Amino acid sequence: MVSKLRAGGEDKAVTGDAVQSGAAVGISPAALRGMHITMLRIRRFEERVAELLRDEIKCPTHLYTGQEAVAAGVCANLRDDDYVFSTHRSHGHYIAKGGDLKALMAELYGKATGCSRGRGGSMHLACLEKGLPGSSAIVGGTIPLAVGTALASSLRGVDTVSVAFFGDGAVNEGIWYESVNFAALKRLPVVFICENNLYSTHMPVSACLADTNIYRKAEAFCIPGVQVDGNDALAVYRAAELAVESARQSEGPTLIECLTYRWRGHVGPNFDLEKGLRNREELASWQARCPIETLERLLSEQDMLSVADRKRIYKDIEREIDEAIAFARQSPYPDQSELLANVFKV
Amino acid sequence: MCMGKMTYAQAINQTLRQMLEADGSVFLMGQGVTSPWYVGTTTAGLIDSFGPERIIDTPVSENAVSGTAVGAALAGMRPVLVHPRMDFMYYAMDQIVNHAANWYYMFGGQVSVPLTVWAIINRGGEQAAQHSQALQMLFAHIPGLKVVMPSTPYDAKGLLVAAVRDDNPVVYVDDRWLYNVEGDVPEEIYSVPIGKGVMRRSGSDLTIVAASYMVIEAMKAAEQLGREGVSAEVIDLRSLKPLDEELLLGSVHKTGRLVVADGTWRTGGMSAGISAIVAEKAFASLKAPVGRVTLPDAPAPASCVLEKLYYPGAEDIVMAARKVVAAS
Prior knowledge:
The structure holds two protein chains of two kinds.
Chain A: E1 3-5, H1 16-22, H2 29-52, H3 68-75, E2 83-85, H4 91-96, H5 101-108, H6 143-156, E3 162-167, H7 174-185, E4 190-196, E5 199-200, E6 203-204, E7 225-229, H8 233-248, E8 254-259, H9 280-287, H10 291-301, H11 307-330
Parallel strand pairs in A: 2-3, 3-4, 4-8, 7-8
Antiparallel strand pairs in A: 1-7, 5-6
Helix pairs in contact in A: 1-8, 2-3, 2-10, 2-11, 3-8, 5-11, 6-7
Chain B: E1 3-7, H1 8-22, E2 26-30, H2 46-54, E3 55-57, H3 62-74, E4 78-83, H4 93-106, E5 116-121, H5 136-140, E6 146-148, H6 153-165, E7 170-175, E8 182-186, E9 198-201, E10 206-210, H7 213-227, E11 232-236, E12 239-241, H8 245-255, E13 258-265, H9 270-281, E14 291-295, H10 304-310, H11 314-326
Parallel strand pairs in B: 2-3, 2-4, 4-5, 5-7, 6-7, 10-11, 10-13, 13-14
Antiparallel strand pairs in B: 1-8, 6-12, 9-11
Helix pairs in contact in B: 1-2, 1-6, 3-4, 7-11
């Protein structure tokens, strides 16, 4: 499943094969534990959101369940001042980059204390102090924005890196090609992370792309293109580590295709199996490869996660989410007098 | 105040140079900024002074290049993004509208987009339907965008300075038919307030409201009307959004008659919006129905014979004014 391609013939990257066989070699215990906690926070947060979507949360919500290793593995390589741009499916990136859970939950409730003050909803999350200038619900829409923050870093001579997360569907957009070309042309410090979860809403990737090996498109732009197992946090981490470092050293962009799978339907809390778009066996096969269970097994084998540790981590996260829900419920709605505030900055 | 006579195009060139010198976060980006023909002489010499890092000529990727400028603005830069023909901007609508215009509101006023979108109308010369369009009203329709349209060299400079300094996305529309117009332009950096129009000529019988190149035609029409004994006031809106309603309504209250000289299409264009405001807020002052001079609801033709009919000018404004006067 793991392959790579580096234009120009130079192959200096560590491939995912090494990760699968050599386990966690070369990744610090702190980074491994950090990714575990990040993935769990995303998973548990969204599991609770799925329950709340039935009654309390009204805005359209696209859950990330099953894809957590991608956000966690990439963002573990980023600093607070690095930029991350996300999509309509944005909770995972927001949490992995360090966004506050209370503000996120309040945003889903449309409250004034939300991370976008109740003006964005689930698809539009921002946390400036953590390098999240905002996520867009237009497929492919934030890809050039990441190129733009990368251009700003380049013009200013600072070493911040920009990351664009997008799905396989975005690769059908013209703006994807324009943006990757421009970034490659100008050698901008941006990393393109394609989360290929095999479906563009209801359409399988094979019904959309003439060549479903998305990473190979990098060759056309003379930049490195890598395909990794997106359910393996370590594989994602290693690929992102190289790409981020390369961008930080002004060596230009990288495209990483992470093969993964979203467990639930395109939008909302349901699995939508009855809709006939995919079968139960397919879902089960991916659930059997749960990215969190995979990492937990590895951490246990390496004596980095005791039963007691695990229990404590789960309990702490659950309490944090309880607090976030309570905060969201208790928070006020935006004041009606503010409907027309902030159309323009004054 | 050191004042010099210069053309509209020279005023833009001087302003870009001064803003690039004054503020390290300003840069110019877009199709043809180093080309001798795309943007007239407005960017002449900039590449030599500021280099390819800050004068970025781009591939024809209107959408991604616009998005890149938006992203740079999100990071606190003040890009001037040029589209050398408005016709090419349809490709960029998603980034300008869905992203730049919405961003400040959509995230609760946390991060604004200090972007100048410099949009050039380049019509005439048998260029036909896809190289002639004046799309300012498309942008004026969008919440979160400001739209300015200077008609003089003085305003070309002052509004460009204001656009670059504004913390919001501003669509700065100029018309190549104005590029050789001469006027006095102070040497120093100054700004003309966005949202404020100006009275170009005082009159008592009729108000002609216009923007951009149509101000030139409106002034010619006012001269002609004066010879016919009709005293016409000419209002140059300068900004289409926000619109200087106070100036517009004040003039209509005074004269009681209105002709809108509009460089956009008739349906849903500038004249439609202005007529609605006047009907809503100055109905009692009107002595006659509003006159509208607009582009017809048709694409621009190529043939010069048809082109001449297509673009309205002073004579059309005079005829509309005579009709309004005759009706009251």
